[in-house]
Every structure is written in C-alpha cells, then in structure tokens.
Amino acid sequence: MELIEVALHRLGAAFVAGLHEPGYLLISTSEWGRTAQSYTMAGSPGLLGRWPGTDLNEAMAAFHAGTVIEVIGDPGGDYTIHWTRDGGTTPTQILLDAAYRFPGHERPSPRTPGVTDRRPTDPPVLAEVRELVAEFIREHHAEGYPAGNTEEEILAAEDRLGVRLPEDLRALYRVLPDDRTESGLLDPFVLAPLDRLVEWNAEAHPGYQDGVFDDPMIFDCDPPGHVRRVSSSSGWLTFAGDYGMNYAAVDLDPGPLGAHGQVVTHGRDVWAPVEYVAGSVRALLRRAIDTLDEERDDPPPERWQTDSLTEVDDPAMIQEIVLADATDVRFADLDRFPNLKSIVVRDSPTPVDMTLPPALPIERVNVTAPTFDPAVLTTALTLSGIRLAGNRTPVPIAALATLPALLSLDLAEAEVTDIESIATFPALRRLTLSAGQWTGLLATGWQPSSLAAAELAGPAGVAAATHWRRSLGHEATHRTLHGPRPAT
After folding, report:
1. CB 250 within 8 A of CB 208
2. What are the start and end residues of each CATH 3.80.10.10 domain in the chain?
3. Where in the chain is the domain with CATH 3.40.1580.10?
4. Distance of CA 428 to the CA centre of its chain
5. How many Å separate Cα 488 from the centre of its chain?
6. pTM for the full predicted model
7. What is the pLDDT of residues 244-257, one digit of tens each?
8. How far apart are CA 374 and CA 388, in angstroms?
9. Which fold has domain 123-291?
10. Fold of the domain spanning 305-459
11. Three-state DSSP class for 416?
12. Residues with Cβ < 8 Å from 443, sequence gap 6 or more?
C-alpha cells in the first residue's frame, strides 16, 4: 500500500503543479490500457493540470485493470485523491441484469454439430457454378485453380459447423479449394479454405456482440426487408474476406424479403451489424465476371442517414435524421420520410416541436433544445429510446408512461418536474439520470428491480459514484488521500 500511496501522491503533485484553476482528473484502467481526461469543476472536459506519461505510468503500474482514480486539485497545491477497484472501468454504470439484451440483440443460439441433410451438391447448381468459374478463367484468370474439395470433405466441415452450406457455395468448394491466388473471383472478397471457414464460424458469430449500455439501434439494410434487424445471427456464416478486415457471409436466416444463401458483409468498414451484398454466391460470381475490369468508384455515403431536410434524392431511404444547431425544428415536417426511425436534434437554439406525424415508425428521439414538450411523444407507440436535454424550464414526463415500448430513457441533462413518475414506466430497462435526479427518485422508496442497467451521468467523481452505487444496493468502497504529502 505504501508504494501505491507514493505513486498517487506523485501523480497528485504533478497534476496540481500545472493548474491555473481548480479541476479534476479521472483515470480508468482496463485490460486494453487506460484512459485519462481532465475537467473543470463544472464538469466540462478540458486540458487542465500536468500529468506527463512518466507519472501516469508509475501510478498505473501499481493498479490492476478495473481501477478508477480521481485527482481533485487547485492551483495552491492542495489535492484530494479518490480511487476504487469496485466499479470496473465505469463506476457510473451498474449492470443489474447481466442476461438482458435489447430486442434484436439477443445472443445467437449455438449451432449443434452434425447435419441431417447428407445429399450431394445439387447437380444443376454444380454445373452452373462450374461454368461460371470456367468463364471467369477464360476472361480473367488463365492459370486456373487447383482441384476442389470432395463431397466428403465438405460434409465433414458441415458436420463440425452444424449447418449445410447453400448449394452454390457447396458447388464453389467442389470446383476449387480456395482462392489463394487472390484472383478476384468473388471480387472484392477472397474465398477461404474449408478449414478456415470452420475456424472462423466456430469462434464467434458475425455482427455486434454488444451489451445493454451500447447503442441498441439497428437500421434496415438496403434493400429493406432482406436482412433481419438483429445485431448478430447464427445464420450468418463467414466464408471469404478482403485485406481491409471485411468479410463476406452467407445468410441462412434472411429477412422476409431476402433469400436463403444471400451474401452479406461485416467488418471494419461496415457501420452496421451486416450489409447486404448480393442475392447469392452465384450472383457475386456473375458480378465479378462482368465488372472485374471496370473502374471502381468510391463506395457511396451512407444512404440511410441525412443532416438535411431538403437535399435528399429518395426520402424513403432515410432512416435517421441528425440536425445540429438547427432552428425552428418541427417533427411534423418529417412526414415525407416514411421509414424514419431515429431523430437527433443537437443544440438547437430555439424550441423544438416534437409533435410527430402519424404512422412514422419512430424508435428513437434525442433532442437538446431550450424548450420541448415530452407529452407530445406519446403518439409514437414504437418509440423505444428517448434522450432529452438542455431545456431551461422544467417539464413533466409522466405522460411517457403510456409508451408501451419505451426501454431506454436518458434525462440526465434535462430539467423535469416529476422525476418520481419514472416508477410508473412499465417497460423501462435502462435509465440514465444525474446525481440529483437519482436522489429524488430513490427518496420516494422506488427500487430499480425492473431495470437491467442504471447509469449516473453528469459531473460525478469516484466518491459520488460510490455513494450512488451504495444507494442502489451495490457494494462499493473507495480510498482517499489528501495532499500535499508531508515531507519526510
């Protein structure tokens, strides 16, 4: 403990030595490293104090992952240090139901090894794929490919995975073992060998492996209805990759308008669980044959989102509108976007009229404005997430209890008159409030038995977070040091 205190005192002294105004520094550690940010005493992020890497490294060497340190100081040289190991890397978040997942984010069911369908590859499909590969060889790849896999080898891979591959992917593996020559046969993807396909899909399912504190919004792929709106699926089977850390997968559990065996992509450049690529492996082969020698344009920008209400070619494609610093915002003006699911208004300087047009499939509203009326949102029966902030006159929120699908609510930066009404919200599973709001709500005797996740937002250091965690029935402790350290 003496070594820890020495390191913390050195960190505190270094921090206050660079202060020109009171402030505090928050540091958290995890298995991936550490994060550090300084703030004014009002809670605004800023570059305050002095905390060179050597001081951080020495202090952090004494702590394991999951430690949070808060250094509060003033230019006169005084400082107080709080630190805890009880709250993980985020002591202002409490997971109350570890098994809960938002709708569409349920964990995929595990695959069971073994397959019952042991038929050989469909002969007409095999003949078609063989001809497509032959055409590609004639036009683009004169050196050809090695001999493909046997039916027994493909069946052995399927047995390990617990699924039968789509017929055209089976056929492709019958014709060649992989595309180790990177010929462009599945441009832009490269066919993986069977053993790698098994390895990839035995480890994890594509898509998001997220939790209740992550963004639960999933947008429709283009074209809508082809891919199910889920964050991950045991029906997505990865079979090819590119060299930008993106992958192609066949979809064995498509949406209502999709086709079994359609091709989707996931990976570093995909800002969704997956994106639709082609109707089948055969369609991907045909596209490569027809377009491999053509000049490729840069990929189009995301078509499902806009920050303009006028410069939109196809309003039916827009699923999210994000407006920053916009004035005179009226949700009623959004009726020409029939598939709109998310509205984000950031820092509007004027009142926002949140009266929604009927029949819009709105699922998320996020508004920061000086004036708004939450009660008008009660017509949106599909609304599952609300964040309100910035209002100058407190507003009532009790009417939101009539929303049957409201799962997530963030009022931490809003002024409300009836915080106690949250106890009547029937579907709420994630709640984010400020310290004062939590105090007011818990003072009514309400307990978060129906919540899956609770979050303390706004200016809150280690000591405040410890008190909050205890108020929700969670064990939490922190230690405190005061400086400057007496000379020895």
Report:
1. no
2. 305-459
3. 123-291
4. 20
5. 50
6. 0.86
7. 899 999 999 999 99
8. 8
9. SMI1/KNR4-like (3.40.1580)
10. 3.80.10
11. strand
12. none
